[in-house]
Hints:
By secondary structure, chain A is an all-alpha fold.
Amino acid sequence: MLKSVELMLYKEMRRFVEADLQRVETTIAKHLDSDVPFISETAQYVLSSGGKRIRPALLILSARLCSYAGPRMYDLSTVIEFIHTATLLHDDVMDHAELRRGNPTVHSLWGNEISILIGDYLYAKAMSLALADKDHLVMETVSDVTVEMAKGQVIETLKQRDLGISEAEYYRIIALKTASLFAASCKIGAIIGGISPQRRAKVEAFGHHLGMAFQMADDTLDFVAPADKLGKPVHNDLKEGKITLPIISLLQQASPEESQFVTDYVNNGSDDDAVPRQVTTLLHKYDTLKSTLAKAQEHVDQAKQQIESFAPCTAMDTLYAIADYVTTRDV
Amino acid sequence: MLKSVELMLYKEMRRFVEADLQRVETTIAKHLDSDVPFISETAQYVLSSGGKRIRPALLILSARLCSYAGPRMYDLSTVIEFIHTATLLHDDVMDHAELRRGNPTVHSLWGNEISILIGDYLYAKAMSLALADKDHLVMETVSDVTVEMAKGQVIETLKQRDLGISEAEYYRIIALKTASLFAASCKIGAIIGGISPQRRAKVEAFGHHLGMAFQMADDTLDFVAPADKLGKPVHNDLKEGKITLPIISLLQQASPEESQFVTDYVNNGSDDDAVPRQVTTLLHKYDTLKSTLAKAQEHVDQAKQQIESFAPCTAMDTLYAIADYVTTRDV
Lengths: 331, 331
């Protein structure tokens, strides 16, 4: 699935934001400094365990696309990454996850309590940092996105193991739980970039479509990525009852017997490794990983269209490279 | 322990804020209206299950003490109650609590996931509502208090089952996890009341001392209240490993054998009902419930002193009545 041209381009383009992302790391460390050393250490552990910092990169590149290059983007990237990390910590409790990006989760090391509380702490710190930026629109964006994400996660939980979930419901969930934070990252970049509301909406829409594509691609990876690369076992989402587009598309086309087979696996799991392999075989039979990626690619294309009217610059090239990378990455 | 004079006074005084608290209920319901009916219903369930609304009452009375009587106090009371409820939801997951105020917890009805997520949703909504008030100092107060509460809960969790916990550490924990929200409620009332920073600090300090007293009294109730009145089993905190002042004071005075007995109970629990009864007997032997309440009373006195320079009014009388009630309540 990996197209090496896009990966090379992505790696090259990423160099453009490397120095910025280094400053994000320093800023994250600075804001984690707490009078409770355990909090700093635990939060640092989870924040430094191999995240790709794609949301900070989007915020910074969106700001640079609007010719902004001041210090606000580092603090606000930290806000976004704290929120993202808080949701991961709460996710891990809910999914009983033992591994995240190949490392033991906070939940497995220190227990549910600490994972919930460090998540709460990071949420609270994010709000506090966003407030310190003293821009009402930024703060509103941060506040709105946390409401949306929580809403998306509730709906996703309610739809767990519901094989009757529609494609539209799936899109609503990923829009709220994932695309909203991508959109907010880009929007905040545009806000500090000081462009007009109309143009800001385009940058925000770029983030939304990219987030949709990112999550759809991610949902295919659950079925294909080797466990050591993804950092978590395959079929993890499915085992947790998350019914994603590849499965929804499969059920739209499968025979009654095939549907029953998938339903049984989702509802009861299986100790037999052959069963998940057969599910994967069905996904390939109906080409639903490919069709999911094709739909993700449509979002990538829509994302790119949103910002094509902006003046060409390295930030724009890099945003394009990230957009292309999203559907071709294998991790 | 119940002193009926104080209770009668409290009930009478509470009538003064009854109409205000009714408006808080309407405001809470209004802000819970979500396009995801499950969220509204679940949040409404937990928010309407018998909370005493002491924090909204404090916010409103503090505002009225400063001659404020506008609509901001209802929205901001909702902010405070959402934050309080969010922490209860996360607490219940951590404590594996089945009952809260005599009702089944969200966690026991809908599971951990929903309890965590509705908590996250209420946090996010609280921030969003606080932001809509458009007062930087209010927003800062709300944001700071959530950081403090999360910090307090982390420290409390780290100190679980640690019988070496000092009195000072106990005070630090309850200041962060409980008194901070009481203080913030009063401070917000004073902010919208538009008084000077010096006088505002007094109102805030009133809330802090009241919160300290409230938590200390609450920590004695774990050992005395009948299960049907408290809505949760007695010795619940102790079983969860929360070492509170009555136990700390007991261990300061107990014989080595008695200490060992308590230590064994805290570490290993007991299926034998006689064991918790013997722990209670020890608490009475060293009078540590009484000494804890005496220390709570000192905080009540300090609280009252803070606001004695304010012009006498019904709001002040009511704050005094609430202060007296805190150490005498039996629920």
